[in-house]
Design goal:
Elements (H helix, E strand, L loop, with lengths): L1 H23 L3 H19 L2 H4 L2 E3 L13 H12 L9 H10 L3 H6 L8 E3 H18 L3
Antiparallel strand pairs: 1-2
Helix pairs in contact: 2-5, 2-7, 4-5
């Protein structure tokens, strides 16, 4: 009886230790997503209203439905912000988006411009970015 209890107890303890370690040590991808989220939140709070109200290409079709918050969304946001006068490729959030998108570079490279597009305000784009990061972190907490 004692051996059976120990045999069952040891794997349970190992599992708990692994879960605790995983929570205490997020992956580099998770840390990157968290940094992007924090930067988007800070920009939303600190950029002047006239900047937040400027119009950029819409990503609405990539934040809802079956294609919600997939790699194409993050590629598109990186491209939009790279071309925005208040961001550009040297901006920290844009660089972090580039790191996030690097494993999916093929998807980003294949993404075509829609031609004539609907526009949304920059503030809404940043809200969508934070929403998608939350969505990914719920699906993949580490």
């Amino acid at each position: 009886m004692m051996k059976t209890t120990m045999v069952l107890l040891v794997p349970s303890v190992v599992l708990l230790v692994n879960l605790a370690f995983a929570k205490a040590h997020p992956t580099p991808e998770k840390r990157n997503r968290d940094l992007i989220f924090d930067l988007a939140k800070n920009y939303t709070a600190s950029l002047p209203t006239h900047v937040m109200e400027t119009y950029v290409e819409s990503v609405d079709g990539l934040v809802s439905g079956s294609k919600k918050c997939q790699h194409r969304f993050f590629c598109k946001v990186e491209k939009i912000l790279t071309g925005h006068t208040n961001f550009g490729e040297k901006d920290q959030m844009v660089r972090l988006l580039g790191v996030h998108n690097e494993p999916h570079k093929e998807i980003c490279d294949k993404q075509k411009d829609a031609g004539v597009s609907v526009e949304i305000q920059l503030g809404k784009l940043l809200d969508h970015l934070r929403e998608c990061l939350r969505h990914i972190n719920i699906k993949n907490p580490n």
